Amino acid sequence: MATAANGVSKRKQSRYSAKYRSEAFSLAERIGVAAAASELGLHATQIYQWRAKAAHEKFVGDRERQLREENARLKRQLAEKTEFAPARSLVGRPATGSMLISHAQRLAA
């Protein structure tokens, strides 16, 4: 990382804008990577690196979207499960000894 005169490190600025890279990709698709690089005054490896980075960023973005959707689905399932859980536990719970005794006492009275 580059260091400024005051000793604080600063991030190196990108030399080419995203728009420029996008146009370089389009040109490379039309005439080929080597010809596009030559025409733009770049090394072909630069275009390949940009393309690989863009593909990686797209993959990461797609994966994040999939994870967000899955999290939302799981949260909905959990909410449904916890919403209906108390009703199920009351209905499906077996009678305890104290419940049987109190019921028997009511019948005797």
Automatic annotation (TrEMBL):
Q: Which InterPro entries match?
A: Homeodomain-like_sf (IPR009057), Transposase_8 (IPR002514)
SUPFAM superfamilies xref list:
Homeodomain-like
Q: Name one GO molecular function term.
A: transposase activity
Q: Which GO terms describe its biological process?
A: DNA transposition
Name the UniProt record assigns to this protein: Transposase
What highest taxon heads this organism's lineage?
A: Bacteria
- List the source organism: Spiribacter vilamensis
Supply the Pfam families for this chain: HTH_Tnp_1
Protein family (similarity comment):
Belongs to the transposase 8 family.
Give the signal sequence positions: none
